[in-house]
Design a protein that fits this description.
The complex is a heterodimer of chains A (375) and B (629). By secondary structure, chain A is mainly alpha-helical. Chain A has 15 helices and 3 strands. Chain A has a 3-stranded antiparallel beta sheet with strand order 1-2-3, covered by helices on one side. In chain A, α4 packs across α6, α11 packs across α13 and α14 runs antiparallel to α15. The longest helix of chain A has 33 residues. In chain A, 49% of the residues are buried. In chain B, the strands form 8 sheets. In chain B, strands 2, 3, 4, 5, 12, 20 and 21 form a 7-stranded mixed beta sheet that branches. In chain B, strands 14-13-25-24-23 form a 5-stranded antiparallel beta sheet. In chain B, strands 1-9-10 form a 3-stranded antiparallel beta sheet. The chains are: A mainly alpha (375), B alpha+beta (629). Chains A and B meet through α7, α11, α13 and α14 of A and α1 and α2 of B.
């Protein structure tokens, strides 16, 4: 070993030591910081160049990163021990929302705790995959049919409670998170395809239980031009923004659709359209690569995890992150019906960001609390 | 829990998980590629479509109306100008309760029921996002009062506009015409793109005839607007091309002198410079204020104008078809000479009336006692009717109409203003077609003194007189002398346009008639002798009276007994100076009575003013030579 190589090795060890002391994962952290920086740039443009909005987002990011840092310190074993209690608390709060919740934007999602308003459904995005992982982890995998049925109940009960608020977006994310945990638990492909078919068959039943506005959204998704000024306006303007962006985009602060207020919800759910308009297909490519890096790193962390609980939980959380991305971009480009799912880490708003960063904190904790085995 | 079994499971589970993680990653990558495919579709394949849609969202086209050309008289006096004024406009889509808003506005600004009904009518055919004027020509006080209260009226605004103004009000209105708001019918006719944003269009007169030149070409502004419709900036601007300014041959001071000379009388006057066909004055009395029509006239004023017994809106000079009376005699006399049917030195005896063989009816002379023996000169000078009855009978109606037609009575003169009517030279064929009756010899007699079916407008008479003074050559009468490009200041003169000349057989015959007409003014027995007194130049003229109603046989015409409305029209035609004609005039004074006493003096005043200028103009070279030693 040359002197130079030795010095490089020392440096690498030092850095690992610093990251390990803080229980952070450097590659993941770098990706998350990059996404946050993009968020601030896009928000500045989409908010009509409001430095105020950017500052508020900076504060939220700060809080979210703090929460990530905090959760990274908690040993996954402790998390596992507390999982059933978290889940029970979550279900209790959901029931409380159903009876005492505050109404905002036509849906009952909030719980007023005096100091701040709290959205219990947000917490369930973490606790549902945690609970499923906890339930399946102490027994051999793949799970038996009986255990699978119970796991399904763990998913379905909070999902239905949230869908009833109604908050279709969150319900979808929670169900997705749970299902991905089941998938990682190794349930057979035959079962996966069978349940997929069953879900498709039950679509008419689902339709029956939908609220009017939800049905309207589905209809609008199927034919947005039918009401160009009503429900279809969002999706039409969004497609115009994206399409007119072209390969290279109109340039930062030059997107006419967003700057001239034609694009609705341009700093929240439809921020992707504002980004696509100003940065074009190449800009999108960069963003998607960044997202894919986060997913790859997350899956790597999960597969390097040392016990079943952390492995299943890590995989579930990473795939929840992916569902966010896919549903949001699919909705904004008109591939999926409009559901209220933000673009992770880019959209303006605090609640989903805190949850997302918390899940990344858990992932980092999983990675940094491994017991070092001798090679 | 057995530790060995969990250990065994551990390896299997790790392998299973890694397997599933790879599948999940592949799934994620596949779905992202699906998203990218969709984005490629939107941003590359459909990029052009969405770019157009995006521009359609933000870019709005606004027409910038051109400034209407100004009209000047021959000396540069401004006859039609554009003045800025404020008008109150309402944009329908931004007003919640229209009626309540109008009711509140009425407390600040004087708004009539008429304004409101007109506003509502225009509102119906205007898109909701375009402003519609409610009141025009706001006073400064009203503008200020609204400015203070503007915050209470969203969707209501005061906007500066240019409106047409005629500084001389009614003077020359029948030549100049006026503009008004574009009507529904006009909208069908005009190029609506070019008139986008234009408020006014020429309704009558020069304003209508030269509409294309005066209007100019519309400009275009590309505006960037946001989703709320607010204009953010001008992206591109093609400036409008302003309309051309017009310089008229008309002299507004001459016009004033002529109009004033009519006093309280109704009538008409046309003055033409025979040398180039310039129309110097075009008078129809009474006049009305052209400015009333610009902003839209209210129905009360309009009805008053319409119902007035003096009919101020009737364009007498272009559309008044009067019998020419005795003013036609020089032309009939010329016909007799040119056809070689009379010897000017042979007299006819006038006993005060004329009778046809086998007809009981007496055709009277205006002079009951008769003129005695008269030759052609005397017949013109004293306006003997009997001589012309006899001449008309000799000529016959066919020759009379064939000779007079080339003077243009049956056609339009082609003057460059709107609304002129043709006259009428009666003929056998015309009567067969129009009246389905044969021609009677008695009708030939009265045609010979310009009565009966014979009709001419004052403009026709002036033009025929000018033709006579030019020995048959004809020029189209022209009001506009030149156009001016307001940007480059380039002035382009409009050339004289000749009409087909009247064939001349012997110029001596024309000389004879002109000499006789000169004696009408400049001899002691001439019917217009009073205007010959003190004239610094020689005038050739002819008086006339046109019967408004016919006197029964054996009845006496006593002027004083007849209500003014039923009195004869007084006429005069003439040109001067005889040697080098520079002005030809026809005057008709409705119910004026005697042509020599009433109509001729008006012509003299006009001639005096104009010829004085012409003489000054033509003298200077000589004076300069004298001054330089």
């Amino acid at each position: 070993m040359s002197l130079f190589e030795a010095r490089a090795e020392v440096l690498r060890t030092n850095r690992r030591n610093l990251a390990e002391t803080l229980h952070l994962d450097a590659p993941l952290l770098i990706c998350l910081l990059a996404l946050s920086a993009i968020s601030l740039f896009v928000l500045y443009s989409a908010s009509g160049q409001s430095i105020d909005v950017v500052w508020r987002q900076v504060v939220r990011l700060g809080v979210a990163f703090l929460i990530m840092l905090t959760l990274a310190q908690i040993n996954p074993a402790t998390l596992k021990r507390w999982t059933p209690w978290f889940f029970g608390l979550g279900i209790g709060l959901l029931l409380a929302v159903l009876f005492f919740g505050e109404t905002g934007k036509g849906a009952q999602r909030w719980l007023d705790l005096g100091l701040f308003r709290f959205q219990p459904s947000e917490m369930m995005k973490l606790t549902v995959p945690m609970m499923v992982a906890w339930y399946l982890s102490d027994h051999p995998l793949p799970p038996t049919l009986k255990r699978l049925s119970v796991a399904c109940l763990i998913i379905v009960i909070p999902t239905l409670l949230i869908a009833k608020q109604p908050d279709l977006g969150t319900a979808l994310l929670i169900a997705g998170a749970g299902v991905f945990v089941l998938l990682f638990a190794g349930i057979s492909w035959r079962l996966i395809f069978a349940s997929g078919a069953a879900l498709a068959a039950s679509a008419p039943v689902l339709w029956h239980f939908m609220r009017d506005y939800q049905r309207q959204r589905v209809l609008t998704f199927l034919n947005p031009e039918q009401s160009p000024l009503g429900a279809g306006y969002h999706i039409i303007q969004s497609k115009i923004a994206i399409g007119s962006g072209g390969l290279y985009g109109k340039g930062w602060l030059n997107g006419t659709q967003s700057q001239l207020n034609f694009l609705p919800e341009r700093s929240t759910d439809f921020i992707f359209a504002a980004y696509a308009e100003e940065f074009g297909l190449f800009g999108i490519l960069a963003l998607l690569v960044l997202y894919l890096l986060v997913i790859m790193r997350g899956l790597l962390i999960a597969s390097q995890a040392q016990d079943t609980y952390t492995r299943l939980l890590g995989g579930g959380l990473v795939m929840t992150f992916f569902i966010y991305i896919f549903v949001n971009i699919g909705m904004v480009t008109g591939l999926l019906p409009v559901v209220g799912v933000p673009l992770p880490l880019i959209s303006y708003g605090g609640t989903s960001m805190v949850t997302l960063m918390a899940s990344f904190g858990i992932l980092m904790s999983i990675h940094t609390h491994r017991k070092l085995l001798p090679r | 829990m057995a530790s060995h079994s969990t250990l065994k499971d551990h390896f299997r589970e790790t392998r299973l998980f890694t397997n599933r993680a790879v599948i999940a990653l592949l799934l994620a990558a596949a779905l992202m590629i699906l998203l990218l495919a969709r984005l490629f579709d939107l941003q590359v394949l459909q990029h052009a479509t969405y770019s157009v849609l995006s521009d359609k969202n933000r870019v709005h086209i606004r027409a910038v109306p051109p400034t209407r050309g100004l009209i000047y008289d021959r000396n540069g006096a401004l006859l039609a100008e554009n003045l800025p004024s404020y008008q109150l406009e309402i944009t329908r889509e931004r007003v919640a309760d229209l009626d309540a808003t109008i009711a509140e506005l009425r407390q600040l600004i004087d708004i009539s029921d008429e304004n409101i009904s007109r506003f509502k009518k225009r509102l119906e055919r205007t898109q909701r996002h375009k402003p519609v004027p409610l009141r025009t020509r706001l006073s400064d006080i009203e503008v200020a009062r609204f400015a203070v209260n503007r915050h209470r009226f969203p969707g209501v605004d005061t906007v500066a506009h240019l409106y047409r103004h005629y500084p001389f009000n009614g003077r020359g209105v029948h030549a100049l015409g006026y503009v008004g708001r574009i009507s529904e019918q006009e909208l069908q006719r005009i190029d609506s793109t070019n008139y986008e944003g234009t408020e006014f269009i020429g309704k009558t007169g020069i304003e209508k005839f030269y509409e294309d030149l005066l209007h100019g070409e519309v400009g275009v502004e590309q505006l960037e607007t946001n989703a709320q419709g607010r204009t953010l900036r001008v992206l591109d601007r093609t400036p409008p091309i302003p309309g051309l300014n017009l310089y008229l041959n008309l002299d507004i001071e001459l016009q004033r002198i002529a109009e004033t000379a009519f006093g309280d009388n109704n009538g008409a006057l046309a003055a033409i410079d025979p040398s180039d066909g310039s129309v110097l004055a075009l008078v129809s009395m009474p006049t009305f204020d052209a400015n009333l029509f610009v902003g839209g006239i209210d129905s009360k004023t309009y009805r008053a104008l319409q119902d007035s017994p003096d009919q101020p809106m009737f364009n007498r000079v272009l559309r008044g078809r009067y019998p020419p009376g005795s003013t036609i005699k020089p032309f009939v006399g010329l016909a007799g000479l040119e056809y070689g049917l009379i010897d000017p030195n042979v007299s006819t005896y006038c006993q005060g009336w004329y009778m046809l063989d086998g007809d009981e009816r007496k055709y009277r002379d205006w002079k009951k006692t008769g003129h005695g023996h008269v030759d052609l000169t005397q017949a013109i000078v004293e306006s003997c009717d009997v001589y012309f009855y006899d001449l008309a009978l000799t000529l016959g109606i066919d020759r009379i109409s064939r000779f007079l037609e080339p003077f243009g009575f049956n056609d339009l003169t082609g003057i460059d203003t709107s609304g002129e009517l043709t006259g009428l030279v009666p003929s056998r064929q015309w009567k067969r077609q129009a009246k389905r009756a044969p021609w009677y010899p008695g009708e030939t007699l009265i045609t010979g003194i310009g009565q009966g079916f014979f009709l001419a407008t004052p403009l026709h008479l002036a033009e025929a007189t000018a033709t006579l003074s030019r020995y048959g050559s004809q020029l189209r009468p022209r009001l506009v002398a030149a156009t001016e490009d307001p940007d480059s200041r380039e002035i382009i003169g409009l050339p004289a346009v000749p009409n087909i000349a009247v064939p001349v057989i012997d110029r001596a015959n024309w000389d004879y008639i002109i000499r006789a007409m000169t004696r009408v003014v400049h001899s002691p027995k001439g019917t217009a002798r009073r205007i010959g007194r003190g004239a610094k130049y020689k005038i050739a003229g002819k008086t006339g009276t046109a019967q408004v109603f016919s006197i029964k046989q054996d009845e006496k015409y006593v002027e004083e007994d007849i209500a003014k409305k039923l009195r004869d029209h007084a006429l005069f035609v003439g040109f001067a100076p005889v040697e080098n004609p520079r002005i030809a005039i026809a005057v008709i004074v409705e119910n004026g009575g005697s042509g020599g006493a009433v109509a001729a003096p008006i012509a003299r005043k006009v001639m005096d003013y104009y010829l004085e200028q012409v003489l000054v103009e033509e003298k200077p070279p000589a004076q300069q030579k004298e001054q330089k030693p």
